[in-house]
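=== Discrete structure encoding ===
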Amino acid sequence: MSFYETLYIVDPNLENQALEKTMDSIGKELEKTKSKIINHRFWGKKRLAYPVERQKYGSYIIMQFEGGDQAKMVDYNTWMKLNNSVLRHMTILLEEKPELYVEIKHSESEDENKKLTDDATDAVTDDSGSEKESVVSDSGSENEVEEPKDQDSSPEIEEDSESKEVE
């Protein structure tokens, strides 16, 4: 069986209800081709490379599906071109079956971890007495960065006396 992915851009000024209605109508039109939708989700609002129908931004929606009747896919493509709420669309053939997308819900423990990463610049003193700044990366691991004690203690550049001699 063939698997496809359609990325389409709709008007960014659509409200959530109108966006959901547009996504539902596109999904129903695709189901007329006897295709099975695997994923259909809002990808985000992004700036367009060039204005399309006087719009600088667009709401990107990605849909992955298992191919159905190929003769009816031509009608679906024509319908997408004529749909006023769709600015642009593109359908590609996928090499393998896409994985089912599951949106991760934030739990209370993840909210606490986010709060901890926001307070990532805590000063820590080690055994030698030098100050180190603790920096927490996005992965959650801490990296310590040593700060110099004196501003004047920068390393001096040694010059080679042989390089100064000119023949």
